[in-house]
Structure formats: structure tokens, C-alpha cells
Amino acid sequence: MSDFDPSSSISLPREAVRALRSSQIREVANAGFGVPDVLPFWFGESDRVTPPFIREAAAEALGRGDTFYTHNLGIAPLRESLARYVSELHGATPLDNLAVTSAGVNALMLAAQLVVGAGDRVVAVTPLWPNLVEIPKILGATVETVSLSYGEQGWTLDLDRLLAALTPDTRLLMINSPNNPTGWVMTRDQQRAVLEHCRRVGIWIVADEVYERLYYGDASERTAPSFLDIASREERLICVNSFSKAWLMTGWRLGWMVVPRTLTDDLGKLVEYNTSCAPSFVQQAGIAAVEHGEPFTRSLVADLRASRDHLAAALAKLPGVDVKVPHGAMYLFFRLAGAQNSLELCKALVRDAGLGLAPGSAFGPQGEGFVRWCYACDPARLDAGVERLARYLEAVGAH
Ligand SMILES: Cc1ncc(COP(=O)(O)O)c(C=O)c1O
After folding, report:
1. Among 56, 204, 297, 336, which has the highest number of CB atoms less than 10 A from its own CB?
2. Which residues belong to any copy of the Aminotransferase class I/classII large domain (predicted)?
């Protein structure tokens, strides 16, 4: 018998890990357990399956036995395809500046690991998908937030407030545009001002541009304004992207990042110690997406634009709803009467109305009072959801 007494040793993870916020969207989903018929609009993904030509490319690769480790930075043909794609959209981007990752969230973690250490100050613009705020904290950094403002124009950035927060002791700015959850899109002028300020002060920028193709500006514009359009490839900018949104590949876990060449070798080491590489047959599917996916992405964006307008028009008719139509991503983030505690409201909506929305507070305190609705789905489903919300609001007497 060992005389080891387990109760005398407390088994807990690091404090920084314990202090991470858990997902409030999951908390709402858990409240829906046992509710038989929930319409889920809470997660950031389409209800449509990945297009067949991409699935076939992966199946073919598996059939050929493409089941081995690859280069840490991705297979050369995929990096070449990405180099052509990114260069076409945003100007010359050689293969040496590109790394394939296990989706956007892994790219965000790698980006943070590249430039952030314990005690560093990071600034993030919120409301924001929580991963960008929590990831630097895992590494022991502190994260200050600068909130977008909400008004007649929807969500807008107070540029002076952001620049004032980007002090000389700031290591990194994490910025996501088009933005999850608000759909806010940073303008070219704002990007220029931020880039120039960060150059002057010596601050890294991690630009999360995973929604760049889900942009509803002028039909001639294929992407939202990107930091890559105005920056050199060799400055302190890391751009994160993903196959999840433009080609409906959320479950595949494939993404990429654009980094200065001076980082590429060290990034390879980090990939080795995190995941070693993205799955090889998934990378083959990525080549099919980049090489043949343009017509698909264009028709997806047209469908999303129509869904956005359809949902916004339907919601605008409801009492207690204040909705603005944003220019990017795939969410409406709207103010809802009775959502002062949006987490509790969303739990009630799922329990009592069978409607799955994400609480605004999941995206930071600035999101309180709002709820997020992902409109990447069949319009009939959107209509059914709006009907449920209307009935709920009527029952609780919203006005
Ligand atoms: C702002 C933002 N960045 C990154 C991601 C990461 O997506 P993935 O890891 O599927 O590429 C998401 C997913 O919803 C997101 O909303």
C-alpha cells in the first residue's frame, strides 16, 4: 500500500488556464438539452455541407493512400496555390510568407505564440469572438479591450480611442474584420492609420481576416479591405485566414497564415510542437477549394447577402428589436428588448421558444444587451426562427 494521500495534493491546471472564460454559447446550448425541437442559429457555420468537388478531392487523396505526415508549413502544391490566390487578391505574396495551419483558430494560437509572452500587453477590439481575447491570456499576457460603438450607423470604430490604447508598452493588436459577431468592416483609411501608428510605435498586428470573402460591399470587390493590401510582407503583420467560411469547410480544420519571412522557420518549429502538420488529405482538399472554388464562393456570398437582407427585414418588423445591416461576415448582432442579461434571455429562448441564439455577452461586456444570429442557412428556416422569436416576444409582452 502506498502512503500517498491524493487529498493532500491539489491537482489543478495553471492559474492562467483556470481564469479563462468558458463559452457562453455552449452554456446556452447545454440549456437546450432535452428540448426536442431547437432551431440552432448560435454557431458560426452554414447548415450546408462542403461542396462536392472539395469532398471528392479528399476522398480521392484518401483512396490514393495520402495518409502521412507532411512538411510542417504545408505541402508545396497547397502553398503554391495559396501564394497565387493571396497574390491575386492582395498583391505579391511569395510561398515563403505562407504557412498552412489546422484552421484559423490554430493560426491564431501560433500567431500569439510567435510574438506574445508572459506579462505582455495585448489590445483587442471588441465585441469579438472570444478566442482572440482568451488565447493571449493562455500565454500569460494581459488583454485590454477597446470597444466599437453602437449607434445609428450600426457598429463603428472610434479610431482615436484605439490609437490612444496602442501605447508604446503594447506588444500586439488583435483585430478581426469583417468582425464576428458584429459584421463590422474596418475601412481602408482606418487600416492605414492603425498600420502607420503600429509601425511608428513598434506594435505587432495580428489581423484575423477569416471572413474577408464574406463581404457585401460593391459587387466588384472580391474581399473586404485587408491589411495585406497596404502592408509590406516583411513588417510586423501576421494575417490569419481559414478555409472554414469561404468554402464551408468548418469541420476540416484547415487554414493559413501570412507572416514575414523572418518568422517562417520559427513558425515551422511551433507547428511541429503544436500539431506537426495539417492532415495531408485535407490539404489536398484545400488545393481543390483554392483552385476551383471561386464560382462556389461567389454564389455563396450572393446567397448570404440575400439571407442577411431577408432576416434583417423580418426582424425589423418585430417589437423590441433594433437591427442594423452590416457589410460583412454572416451574423446579425442586434439589440433585443429584455436582453439586459443576454445569457439568461438566450437560455429562456432555447428552453421556452426552441430558438438557439448566441448571447451578446459571450463576445465581451460591450455585447451585453445584444444577441447574435447566424444567417448562413435556408431562408425558410430563418422564417421559422423569426416566427418563434415573434411568439416569444408577444408572450412576454415586449414592446
Ligand atoms: C473571428 C474568427 N476567427 C477565426 C475563426 C476560426 O475559424 P476556424 O478555426 O474554423 O478556421 C472564427 C470561427 O468562427 C472566427 O469567427
Report:
1. 336
2. 47-389
